[in-house]
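Re: your question from the hallway

Yes, I did run it. Sequences:
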Amino acid sequence: MTTCLRRLAAPAFALAALSIFLLAPDAAFAADKHNSGDTAWIVTATALVLFMTLPGLALFYGGLVKSRNVLSVLMHCIAVACLMSVLWLIVGYSLAFSNGGGLDSYVGGFSKMLLHGIGKETLSGSIPEAVFFSFQMTFAVITPALMIGAYVERIKFSAVLWISALWLVVVYAPVTHWVWSEGGWLFKMGVMDFAGGLVVHATAGISSLVIVKALGSRHGFPNDVSPPHNPGMVATGACMLWVGWFGFNGGSALAANGSAGMALTVTHIAAATASLVWMALEWRAYGKPSLVGLVTGTIAGLATITPASGFVGPLGALIIGVAAGFVCYKMVQVVKSAWKLDDSLDVFAVHGVGGSLGTILVAFLCTPTFGGFGLPEGATVGSALGVQATGLIATVAWSAIATLVIVKIVGGITGGLRVDEDEELEGLDITQHGETAYRLD
Amino acid sequence: MKFVMAIIKPHKLDSVREALGAAGVEGMTASEVKGYGRQRGQTEIYRGAEYQVHFLPKVKIEVAVPDDKVADVVEAIKTGANTGKIGDGKIFVYDLNSAVRIRTGETDNDAL
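Structure:
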């Protein structure tokens, strides 16, 4: 994503672009010509990324919970997807990708609310802005949906909707603006986040911990909670996420080009490597390699390569895969055993840690030494590392603080975030939604 | 008449059915149930966390037999369900007061 936008800032027309930018903030891309190849690929990628949530993530998470809660998890994923889509149209996209005037370093403005002024002919780079809007919408859908894994099996459905809605506006849209909008302060520092290590995985990961802290653990945690009710469903969902991730990372090139092709390649290599590492670690520790472990490694590898995917080569992908397998595997146990936090489906350990790890590693692995495609212009490994760390710290701090406020507010609105204990024990499917997943008669 | 109820490992159902057939048993009822004995459930590990599964899937089989067949039937179940490992299950024998075949109205030994 950054490479594409940065291409626009080539010295040749930097001045001209700047003057257009000042006069008509959102016309800066109008100088580009439409490219049907790029458009075709991003339309495809948009579908792939939506497929990650619907039904990939829904099945991945649904299989990991008790059978009496599986429908509530599917419900969370699909309802959040719907709500985020509508909010993205109303205000999210504008806050993320329009010019914020005096506050442009930190947040966009309201000029693109309801896609105001954007028609079929409006371009964003070489693709129609409607396509760019939709592609970004699928990211805005999956990011709050990732957090569902932290709070399953005990949260009120109303709290899910409120938290996700406020979070999209207060956390996701501004951080997206910092990193991916050309006015954003991290963008201007040259932060490397190809497809959302910061924007998606770090924000969702740390916010998950904050929600869990406010919400409390599931009944019986840590010693007496039920195992995943359907590992086969978990694997099905994970594999859909894997395929969809080709659109997530490959699409973030915002063009049908070599960058997209390489992003897709390194994404796959990192996922495969991390899967094998996780499997091997489990095999050694417990004597049996498990399916759930294997595919958890897949997701860890995918999350970790995400920020780096347009900047590193295959060697970097192998290194990231190995690092993701080891570090995320270890962190799952740290969160549950040492911190005693019931981040139920390991959102922080897999996504938060993975996204953060990739964000830091890319400063080294993008260098030609590791077969990468080079540091940002004028940067050294040291300076790039500084920028990446700044981006990570700022993203984590803002996400944590804002989420803390959000859960306080939502707790007030919904009269507590949790269902009562009887409802939790009976299961959210029947008590919250009036439905039963498996009827064996 | 006796009523034989046995709890066995689910994957041994077929070999028990064959053994009972060979012993002259012409009908039985099987149900999927959950339970534990001295085996005390089992431990499953997901993402490094140990989950104690207290109730394991088992199959309950029920057979009504004339008194003179009880020893053979118990022996058939014992042979068919045996793996030699913990969790093979148990066999219980009850006295049976009466039996009726619904279609014909036959009673007791004629109904078995």
